[in-house]
Design a protein that fits this description.
Number of helices: 4
Strand content: 25-35%
CATH topology of the domain at 26-115: Immunoglobulin-like
Order of helices and strands: HEEEEEEEEHHH
CATH architecture of the domain at 26-115: Sandwich
Largest sheet: 5 strands, antiparallel
Number of strands: 8
Distance between the termini: 226 Å
Shape: rod-shaped
CATH class of the domain at 26-115: Mainly Beta
Length: 218
């Protein structure tokens, strides 16, 4: 009987230790402030192997007191570690209190207190790098390269310039002007006939005057 009692007590002690090892406690929780895609976050990890549901509440601390509540979420623990994330635009060096509540098991703060990094989060692509900026095109947009029609054609460029003699009146033009004024090629002949008639007329007058004088004398 004594041996049986010792064995039972040993078994109960072993089960108690195993139960305490599996039970949820504050040591199963941890918290950290970090950046995700240029934005601040606070991540709480639960490694409770008993898979109890826990309520996580995060507070921003100021001078040892709660300044404001960041948020409250629930998480179910796992041996591998289950996480819950809070979006928070934290300032460098800011301090946060993370409180864990598991009914009848845990009602305590994660220790140590969570402190944000000394450098703020920055957006990955604040400004385009020189290589990403588009290079200016060689010709302005909307403009067109002058076509071949804008340049003088071979026939136009090869045309000889007009000579000063091209503007002088031609011989035919001179003849036409003379014809309009009556000075054509028949003028010498007409002048000759007129002269002969003058001579004949003069001779007739002369002989007529001589005959008249002779008749008066006789």
């Amino acid at each position: 009987m004594r041996i049986l009692g010792v064995a039972s007590a040993s078994a109960a002690l072993t089960l108690g230790i195993a139960g305490n090892a599996l039970a949820c406690n504050i040591r199963d929780f941890s918290a950290a402030a970090s950046c995700d895609d240029g934005k601040g976050i606070i991540t709480v990890t639960d490694t409770d192997a008993s898979a109890k549901e826990a309520t996580v509440t995060v507070y921003l601390e100021s001078n040892g007191a709660d300044e404001r509540q960041v948020g409250t979420k629930t998480v179910t623990g796992s041996r591998e570690g289950a996480t819950v994330t809070f979006s928070e635009d934290w300032a460098p060096g800011a301090k946060y209190r993370v409180h864990i509540t598991v009914p009848k098991l845990v009602d305590a703060d994660v220790s140590p207190i969570t402190t944000a990094p000394s450098e703020a989060c920055t957006t990955k692509s604040e400004s385009p790098s020189p290589s990403d900026s588009p290079e200016p095109s060689e010709t302005p947009s909307g403009s067109e390269t002058p076509s071949d029609s804008a340049t003088p054609s071979d026939s136009e460029s090869s045309a000889a310039p007009a000579t000063p003699g091209d503007n002088e009146p031609s011989a035919a033009a001179g003849e036409s002007n003379l014809a309009e004024t009556g000075a054509d090629s028949n003028t010498p002949m007409i002048a000759g006939i007129a002269g002969a008639l003058v001579v004949v007329g003069g001779g007739a007058v002369f002989f007529g005057m001589r005959r008249r004088g002779a008749s008066k004398a006789g």
